[in-house]
Design brief:
Elements lengths: L3 E6 L5 E3 L13 E5 L1 H7 L37 E3 L1 H7 L4 E6 L9 H14 L4 E5 L3 H13 L2 E7 L4 H9 L3 E5 L3 H15 L2 E2 L7 H16 L7 E5 L4 H15 L9 E7 L4 H8 L25 H10 L3 E5 L1 H15 L5 H16 L7 E6 L28
Parallel strand pairs: 5-13, 6-7, 6-9, 7-8, 10-11, 10-13, 11-12
Antiparallel strand pairs: 1-2, 1-3, 4-5
Helix pairs in contact: 3-4, 3-7, 4-5, 7-8, 11-12
Length: 404
């Protein structure tokens, strides 16, 4: 059964009937799914999760899919929490610095959460052709889950999207096209094609259900930490669906009495070459205008304008958090340092959260006694890597002293 009652405009509060196909609200803002949390709390206890399989479908009562046969799964797992013990020691941290490694999910990124829910609801609502703009990982997740559901997908990505992302989208059944522009240019093509091509637009926050999938990061994190939230969360922020979703999850958990009013500082991490949310936060604005000439090799956070900008900024401010931009060199130096010292290969977007955390510990915005969670949104194996290697000529005598 589903506990969904209605959908609600995140900006005006206008109500929309559940069980119908929806995009943005009449105000052009994201729709949020609302539930009968009172009934949910009577039907479900924390202890019930101890008997359930791993993966985000264990939180099905908190999700909108009503019929079990419409839940599309590719073998999701509960993603691990990994302590950065060497960094803690070196930085004099007495609390905890923890990475939640979302790269363990199907298609290697946290996009699996949002797209699994979006595709499952598309199936439940009778849709059969989905389209989206992507910087790579979201398109791969949509193609995979849509193929599992028997749906057609069309994906548009910037022309400098890593080849591995383009190839995996195509191999997993998506029709993929490169575009000579950024993700917002790809989004314009998808939006203009809704009537002409007949697809449904699954762009970030332009349908209601990717938020619900990303919400499971907050539910899962709370459960993993014994229903105690951390002091701070560093989140790599492009469209910001995960940050918004986790904030929603925490509100729902408090409403049913599973957690108290304490919230982590929600920290939006962006790259210096594309930091519209940081600029708006620093200026005290509620909306973030288009960032001109956006650039960062951390493609997942190269989003020049976000439809949910006000939701990101509200969560950051309500949590007493902040938005921070990190330099390009710092992102990749952070990736290399964590791989070398901790044995964990972060994606560039995840590495940005490490760089931001290190910077925030140094300037005092985060206490060394805090429990801090960094989100690594994808496996680092999906990104170009350069590393110094040696060569051994087996046909010649080997000087083993060089290896000491």
């Amino acid at each position: 059964m589903s506990f969904i009652t209605h959908l609600e405009c995140s900006y005006t509060g206008e109500r929309y009937e559940a069980g119908h196909v929806h995009g943005l609200s009449s105000a052009g803002k994201p729709l949020l799914v609302r539930y009968d949390l009172g009934s949910l709390s009577k039907m479900l206890s924390k202890e019930a999760f101890g008997e359930r399989a791993d993966g985000f479908w264990r939180y099905r009562e908190f999700l909108p899919v009503a019929k079990p046969e419409n839940r599309i799964t590719l073998g999701e797992v509960m993603t691990p929490l990994i302590r950065l013990s060497h960094f803690e020691k070196r930085a004099g941290v007495t609390g905890e610095i923890i990475v939640k490694d979302e790269g363990r999910l199907p298609t290697g990124s946290f996009k699996a959460r949002g797209l699994a829910l979006a595709v499952s609801m598309a199936k439940e609502l009778g849709l059969n052709h989905l389209a989206m703009p992507t910087n790579g990982n979201a398109g791969a997740a949509m193609a995979a889950y849509a193929s599992a559901a028997g749906m057609k997908t069309t994906v548009f990505c910037p022309d400098d999207t890593p080849q591995v992302n383009v190839d995996e989208i195509a191999l997993q059944g998506g029709d993929v096209y490169r575009v000579n522009g950024l993700i917002n240019d790809c989004g314009r093509i998808v939006g203009e094609g809704k009537e002409k091509a007949g697809w449904f637009d699954v762009s970030t926050l332009k349908e209601p259900y990717r938020i619900e999938g990303k919400k499971t990061m907050g539910l899962e994190l709370a459960e993993q930490l014994g229903w105690e939230l951390p002091d701070a969360i560093f989140y790599p922020t492009g469209g910001g669906t995960g940050l918004i979703g986790m904030w929603k999850a925490f509100d729902e958990l408090e409403a049913i009495g599973w957690i108290g009013p304490k919230r982590p500082k929600m920290i939006a991490v962006q790259a210096a070459g594309c930091a519209p949310i940081v600029k708006a936060w620093e200026a005290g604005e509620e909306h973030a205008p288009l960032w001109e000439n956006a650039w960062t090799a951390a493609a997942g956070i190269r989003v020049p304008i976000a439809v949910g900008d006000f939701l990101i900024l509200r969560a950051v401010r309500a949590s007493d958090g902040f938005a921070v931009a990190v330099e390009e060199n710092d992102i990749f130096n952070a990736r290399d340092a964590v791989a070398r010292e901790e044995g964990l290969l972060l994606c560039p977007e995840g590495a940005a959260t490490y760089a931001a955390c290190r910077q925030s510990l140094e300037d005092g915005r985060i206490s060394k006694s805090d429990r801090v969670v960094l989100f690594n949104c994808a496996t680092g194996l999906k990104y170009p890597m350069e590393a110094k290697t040696g060569f051994v000529d087996r046909t010649k005598p080997i000087d083993y002293s060089q290896f000491k």
